[in-house]
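Lecture 7 notes: from sequence to structure.
We start with the chain below.
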Amino acid sequence: MQEASFASRSENRALLVSAIHLAASGDAAGLRNVYDLTSAKLFGICLRICADREAAEDVLQDVYVKVWRRAASFDASRASPVSWLAAIARNAAVDWRRAEHRHDAIPDEAMAEIADDAPLADTLMEGDEERRRLLVCLEGLPSEQSGAIRSAFLQGLTYQQLADRSDTPLGTVKSWIRRGMLRLNRLRKKVLSLSRLR
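Predicted structure tokens for the same chain:
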């Protein structure tokens, strides 16, 4: 059962990588396939961050315009397709919140009402090899850096929300994330090179 699930995830990943490459070559059908394979997950990310269904729909449309324009920059050896797309969605939704001056946190009760029933993108990525490597690397970071990176990139919090929640100056939070990302990249490269030796 677990092997079948892994095979299915591998096939879905291959389909998504292929669709992104088609979109990169200017094939609109490739972008349509990317949309069909990921729109529910990316909409869930947008909705969680925007907390406004209409705004999330607009942001999602913007996400796919960005995917169309940036598809040529996707590198499957550096990131899983879902994590690359989720980062674009997260950043677009955070940009929308900033533009709307919505720095307020969404209450947990409201989150339960607007949550997408489909599995979240980060849940789907758990079986992905790159995600496992990333999680191993995150464990190697100091706790404040690891926690800040997880909150910002996996939970969709803005730097200001992180600063407010931890009662830490905004500059300190940004510094944690910057230093953590630099260290994470070094650790990721080290783990990747070790895994290639096996």
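Points to note: The chain has ten helices and no strands. Residues 1-7 have pLDDT under 50 and may be disordered.
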